[in-house]
Structure formats: structure tokens, C-alpha cells
């Protein structure tokens, strides 16, 4: 994964370059819009860049020979790749902004979530109306703006691509990803509100469906396929990357679910037990409910989703989840899905060096510390 740090720098450069042009565009409309760009620039710095990395490795894996990445992101043959990777990161930022509104989250990456940032701006400026409403409205609009910009970034790169067939394939993957993750987000919202009307035997299957469409495809599989399409992947290569990406994406989200309940705020940037306060109906919760008796299950259901949970109540829920064996089972599911992903690379028609890098990346994204 020697190219990883270099790729991250190139992607950041491309994002900065793109935002500079949009800053000028918004400045001409009104200087009052400057805070939108200031926050977008700050929000789009840092992060793990997993989607950009998977996009690159998808591209690299299907090529017969991969040239060294040059230090200039505008190099013609690299611009489509770097722009696609950057567009995935901007799309991810848009999804996070909207997700924090939906979840009513106060923090993101160790700081205030976007709608809280703009609510604070409203309060400090002593404007009329409700600060919370202003913050939410502004964040929705910024999220929409980022969604549009992710499209523009992708198109700017594809416009320089000589292979029009590959360009259409990339666009098709991106559009499919956008539809699937939006549908997955809707399913997640639905589960939080309607879980009690579903058959108990379906809870795990419904949780897995949310994992697949809200996260697994969009976090791992789709970026791989976007990169592979840019590299002119054959059907067999695409199938191998699909078979690798989906189980790895599931493992990635299962790890995220554990971090959402047990994660160290200094590492995750969010309060410990945040998913418990938000009432996330994850696979971890579905498994916990299966393992608990009627009384403890009823208590779990009563507490889950209460934004006013005390630290003691969070600790009680965490110990309940651990003691019933749910954490151990989720860890086993993560390991099983990682093995499944890696086995999909065996004898796959992909470059040997790329296969080794993908195997290493599989471990990296699923062994994040708490």
C-alpha cells in the first residue's frame, strides 16, 4: 500500500483545487455564503479516505501495468482517476452531513456536526428565529451542494477520458451507488421507527439489508467498481471485485457498529454509546435481542433510542450486549466476512501486487481500534 499516502495527497489537492473555483463562484453571488465554503473545506480535510483508496485499488487491480502516480493530479491520464476518487470523498461528506441531521448527532470527527456549527453561528450572530432550525436548514442545503459538486468533480474527470465506453460504465456505477445508499439510508430510518412491527425472526435479515445498501456497497464495493470501470475491467475482473467488496463492506460496517456502541471518543470523534442514544437497529442489536430473555429484551427496547441516556445507563446496556455474547458473535461475523472477501481474490484475474494490497487493506478497514 505504498501508494496510499501519495494518493491521499493527490485527492486532497484535487478537492482543494475544485473548492477554490466554487469559492469564487459563491463569492460572486454573495459574500454571505463564505461560511458554507469555509466549513466545506474544513469538513473535507482529513478522514480515512477509504473510498478513494478502494477506487484506486480497483483501477490498479485491472490494469496489466500500472505507472507510478505522478505528483501532479492534473496529469492527463490520472485526472479521471483522481477526480473519481475525490468525487467519492465529496459524496461521502454530503452523506455524513445529511446523516448527522437525520440522527440528530451533535458531533462528527471530534468537532461539532455541520448543523450544530451553523446553529452556533446563528446564536453568536444574534439573528432572529430558532438557531436549531437555521442550522438544520443550512446543513441540508450544504449537503445538497456537496452532492451536486461530487457529480461535477466526476464529470470533470470523465470529460478528459478518451474511452467513452469506460466513461459510461463509471457513470453507471456512480449512479447505482447513489441510489443504493439513499435507499439504504431510508431503510435505516424505517428500521428505527418500525422495527417493533416486524416479525422477530426477520430482525437480523432486516439489519443486514440496511448494512448492505447503506454502507457495504457504498463504502467498499462501489468505489472498487468505479475504479475498475475506469481501468477498463473485464466482466471476470468486475465479478471478482464484486465478490471481494461486498463481504468486506459488511465486515467494515459491522466493525463500525461495534465502534458506535463501544468506541473511544478520542478515536471515533463521537461520544461512546452514541448509537444507543440514537436507537440504531444494527446487526449487533438484532443479535443481542435474539440472545436476551423477555425481561432484559424489554428493558433494552425501552432504553434504546433515548437521547437522554445517562452514562450509567449506557454502561448497563454495553455490559448487557457483551455479557449475552453478541459482541463475540459480531466479531466472528467480521472474521468470516473478511475470510470470504480474501478468498474471492484467490485465482482472480487481477494483478498479483494489487491482490496483496487489497488483502492488506481488508485487514486495515476491519481492525480499527476502539
Automatic annotation (TrEMBL):
Transmembrane segments: none
GO molecular function: metal ion binding; prenyltransferase activity
Biological processes per GO annotation: isoprenoid biosynthetic process
Domain of life where this protein originates: Bacteria
Keywords: Magnesium, Metal-binding, Transferase
Cofactor(s) this protein requires: Mg(2+)
Alphabetized InterPro entries for the sequence: Isoprenoid_synthase_dom_sf, Polyprenyl_synt, Polyprenyl_synt_CS
Protein family: Belongs to the FPP/GGPP synthase family.
Name of the molecule in the record: Geranylgeranyl pyrophosphate synthase
Species assigned in the record: Candidatus Lumbricidiphila eiseniae
Amino acid at each position: 500500500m505504498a501508494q496510499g499516502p501519495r494518493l491521499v495527497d493527490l485527492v486532497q489537492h484535487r478537492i482543494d483545487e475544485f473548492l477554490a473555483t466554487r469559492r469564487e463562484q459563491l463569492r460572486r453571488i454573495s459574500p454571505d455564503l463564505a461560511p458554507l465554503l469555509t466549513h466545506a473545506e474544513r469538513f473535507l480535510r482529513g478522514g480515512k479516505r477509504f473510498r478513494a483508496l478502494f477506487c484506486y485499488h480497483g483501477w490498479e487491480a485491472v490494469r496489466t501495468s500500472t505507472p507510478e502516480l505522478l505528483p501532479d493530479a492534473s496529469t492527463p491520464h490520472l485526472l479521471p482517476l483522481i477526480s473519481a476518487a475525490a468525487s467519492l470523498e465529496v459524496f461521502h461528506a454530503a452523506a455524513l452531513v445529511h446523516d448527522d441531521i437525520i440522527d440528530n448527532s451533535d458531533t462528527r470527527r471530534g468537532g461539532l456536526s455541520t448543523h450544530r456549527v451553523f446553529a452556533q453561528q446563528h446564536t453568536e450572530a444574534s439573528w432572529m428565529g430558532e438557531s436549531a432550525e437555521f442550522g438544520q436548514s443550512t446543513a441540508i442545503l450544504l449537503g445538497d451542494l456537496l452532492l451536486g459538486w461530487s457529480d461535477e468533480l466526476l464529470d470533470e474527470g470523465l470529460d478528459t477520458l478518451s474511452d467513452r465506453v469506460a466513461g459510461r460504465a463509471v457513470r453507471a456505477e456512480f449512479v447505482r451507488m447513489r441510489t443504493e445508499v439513499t435507499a439504504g439510508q431510508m431503510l435505516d430510518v424505517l428500521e428505527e421507527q418500525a422495527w417493533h412491527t416486524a416479525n422477530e425472526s426477520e430482525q437480523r435479515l432486516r439489519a443486514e439489508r440496511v448494512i448492505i445498501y447503506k454502507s457495504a456497497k457504498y463504502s467498499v464495493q462501489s468505489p472498487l467498481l468505479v475504479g475498475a470501470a475506469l481501468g477498463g475491467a473485464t466482466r471476470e475482473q468486475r465479478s471478482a471485485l464484486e465478490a471481494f467488496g461486498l463481504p468486506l463492506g459488511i465486515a467494515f460496517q459491522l466493525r463500525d457498529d461495534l465502534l458506535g456502541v463501544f468506541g473511544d471518543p478520542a478515536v471515533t470523534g463521537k461520544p461512546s454509546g452514541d448509537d444507543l442514544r440514537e436507537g440504531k437497529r444494527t446487526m449487533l442489536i438484532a443479535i443481542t435481542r435474539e440472545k436476551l430473555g423477555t425481561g432484559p429484551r424489554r428493558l433494552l427496547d425501552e432504553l434504546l433510542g433515548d437521547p437522554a441516556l445517562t452514562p450509567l445507563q449506557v454502561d448497563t446496556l454495553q455490559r448487557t450486549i457483551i455479557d449475552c455474547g453478541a459482541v463475540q458473535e459480531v466479531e466472528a461475523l467480521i472474521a468470516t466476512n473478511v475470510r470470504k472477501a480474501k478468498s474471492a481474490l484467490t485465482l482472480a484475474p487481477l494483478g498479483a501486487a494489487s491482490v496483496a494490497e487489497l488483502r492488506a487493506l481488508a485487514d486495515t478497514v476491519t481492525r480499527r481500534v476502539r
